[in-house]
Amino acid sequence: MRDRSYRGLRAAVVGCLVACLAGCAGMTTGSNAVEPPPGRPDPVGGVQAGPVRVLQMNLCSSGIAGCYTGRSTAEAAAVIRAEAPDLVTLNEVCQDDVSALERALADVVPGGMVTSSFQAARDGRTGDPYRCRNGQQYGIGLLSRWPAVPGSSTDSGIYPAQDSEDPEERAWLCLDVAATPAVTVCTTHLAYTKREVTVAQCRYMFGTVIAALRARDGAAPLVLGGDLNLGSGDSADLMSCLPAGSTVADDGGRQHVVVTPEFVVDSSRTIDLRGSTDHPALLVTLAPQPAGRRTA
């Protein structure tokens, strides 16, 4: 699902691209815009993609769980401004958190053009979107320094396998973004209460959702960031989920960034969120895989 601000943003981006094709001489950037670091593509394309920096965060923002502090969104915004990632994957957020962090990313992106998307978890008791204590929808989100691929749509859903004793039914979310070349970015927050449910959700995400995305004509490289709750990257349960040729980076236990063979993990590190949530941030830098070295 997309929020209203995203639909307006996408319209603005498409309009700008059309104007450029018609011969516009340049684009006006926001007053708070900064120049992109060397080797990283401009949001409207035209440069072969270099390293892609992915920031995964679980903000424990519902107001319900014991890890809630009320400070994690502000701390996440500070990290985004300091690190200027290309893609941000978000778990345990309220819908307004995504809007606030979209603004933080816009502060460090040339022209302030960014994309966001949000998917609510489902309340198993009512069938309605799960809610934060403040009444906002609760779930997962995506941010991108690039606009959505024109004509594409957000892919999202609720897993068929859920823990019947947990009212929060887990979700997944994917979006095609117009990097050069295009990239599909996904996020999810898998169950933690029952291991067999977590594994079933992981297998559905990679074996059904991502397999379908990868089977499309001209399928883009895919990056998934999320709280998979399946241990470190070499755990047997996690490895049983991942497709052949994928590469994974993790924070040592719960959060992961998984990439398809078009990318390799160049580096990864955790970032202390100063006690504002019970998870560190995980920042992963991806490098394009030389075509001759890709595996199936």
From TrEMBL:
Organism: Pseudonocardia alaniniphila
Pfam families attached to this UniProt entry: Exo_endo_phos
Any one GO molecular-function label of the UniProt entry: endonuclease activity
Coiled coil regions in record: none
Protein name as annotated: Endonuclease/exonuclease/phosphatase family protein
Keyword Nuclease: yes
Domain Endonuclease/exonuclease/phosphatase: 72-279
Domain of life where this protein originates: Bacteria
InterPro entries recorded: Endo/exonu/phosph_ase_sf, Endo/exonuclease/phosphatase
Signal peptide: 1-33
Keywords: Endonuclease, Hydrolase, Nuclease, Signal
Biological classification of the source: Bacteria, Bacillati, Actinomycetota, Actinomycetes, Pseudonocardiales
